[in-house]
Amino acid sequence: MTARKTTTARKRPAKKCTDCKGTGETTETVRVGSARKHRDTSDRQSALCLACFGTGHATN
To answer: Where does the pLDDT of residue 60 fall: very low under 50, low under 70, confident under 90, or very high at 90 and above?
Structure first.
């Protein structure tokens, strides 16, 4: 009896997250002031992508 041949399944490449474009980080505008009079500044800060939780891969 001959040995049974098995094939390995190909892994699909993970899709990149559309919100952060695969980097895992997004940029947010810095806001200053009180709750009623907050204003946006020209400064930006990096934040963790909430759609993929920083992995860079699409969840769905």
So the answer is: low
